[in-house]
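User: I'm new to structure prediction. If I give you an amino acid sequence, what do you actually give back? Let's try with this one:
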Amino acid sequence: MDFQPTEDQRALRAGVRELLEGRYGREALRASVDAAADAGAGAGAGAAVAVDRGLWRELGEAGFFALRLPESEGGVGLALPEAVLVFEEAGRALVPGPLVATHLAAGVVPGAAAGAAVVTAFDLGGELVAYLGEADAVLGAAVLPVGEPVRAADPLTPLYRVARPGGAGVSACESAYVSEGALLTAALQVGSALRTVELAVRYAGEREQFGQPIGAFQAVKHLCAQMLVRAEVARTAVYAAAVTGDPGEAAGAKLLADEAAVRNARDCLQVHGGMGFTWEADVHLHLKRAWVRAEQWRTTAAAEELLAQELLDSTR
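Assistant: Good question. You get back a string of structure tokens that encode the predicted 3D arrangement of the chain. For your 316 residues, that looks like this:
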């Protein structure tokens, strides 16, 4: 069987990358980060980071959120494999906002498919909700809860502590969305992991020590090679889970993608040396976002429990 992306899928990925490079390139990313830093300095912990509503609407118009809705309902009519390609590109560009929740809410929450509504979810477990201050709805909640802002590691992912709603309705909704949410979050992580490989390789070719690029040194070569292997293994797992739709495979893909995103960002920082610790470098943004995403939709512990249960069931 041929598991390579089709020509249409490659064109979709290229189109999304072009859109994001034009609308949310590095300058826009850094402007968002600087604005978040200024807001935090002025308001302290809990300063809100506004969702770029213009970008959100453009993503909606491009079909980002309605990608899997049937054409009869105003969607694009594609499937999960295409969605992970799109989310991989969003992860590469570090596009902020509750992308996964809004995508899952298309067809459920009015305006979500077109990007006219920002939808968040109880996707971090416990009582934390991301982007609650900017959300028009919370996936699985009947009303928009009130939350207390808390400081987040990622300057572009504001967090709020909320009294988690109870009831069987919420649990049923969460169980219906969590597997797909985990897989789409894994795709975001893969995009970030691949981007940090690019950043590390580029810097290794530019930075010189002892009269030659540091990329010529074996230790740096091995570090970059390990980063690439880690990212490609995770990407393969994400693509496979998107094809099968199996919850266990989605959990395994999330485990691999979380590890790839976090460890690759750390290794990229290592390649950059002292420069990697500066605010001006983008490495810390990938690491901080990877930390947050690792706690979203399905944590390491939750994924391991699901896989362990599947293994146990298979032996009975």
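You can read the tokens as a compact description of the fold. Here is one thing that stands out. Residues 152 and 158 are 6 Å apart (CA to CA).
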